[in-house]
Design goal:
Elements lengths: L1 E7 L5 H17 L6 E5 L13 E7 L2 H9 L1 H9 L9 E6 L6
Protein name: EthD family reductase
InterPro entries: Dimeric_a/b-barrel, EthD_dom
Pfam family, one: EthD
Length: about 100
């Protein structure tokens, strides 16, 4: 599996971010071909001090090639272009292959 994580620093207007994200951006995500699963949260906390991020999004893909294809698709490009409509604090995007752990 391959994971895409989008980290959002605090925006200029948190209420606008939440409203736009839920009302406009997530409906686009729901129709995005490629992810096996996705999730998000506005309740980002640090174990100590203030969290550097306001919100987080993560999506699971079968592999890196599937993620690349989803991002390059017209729908993926539309999602990327939409970020400027709510993420005034910027965005940090990371991705990585997921290794299964055993205890």
């Amino acid at each position: 599996m391959h994971k895409l994580v989008v980290l959002y620093p605090k925006p200029a207007d948190p209420d606008h971010f939440r409203d736009y994200y839920v009302t406009n951006h997530l409906p686009l995500v729901k129709n995005w071909p490629g992810p096996l699963a996705w999730r998000y949260s506005f309740d980002v906390a640090a174990l100590e001090g203030e969290a550097p991020y306001f919100a987080v999004f993560e999506a699971d893909f079968a592999d890196a090639a599937a993620m690349d294809a989803a991002l390059a698709s017209p729908h993926g490009q539309r999602l990327a272009a939409d970020v400027a409509n709510y993420a005034t604090g910027g965005v940090v995007i990371i991705h990585y292959p997921v290794q299964d752990g055993t205890g």
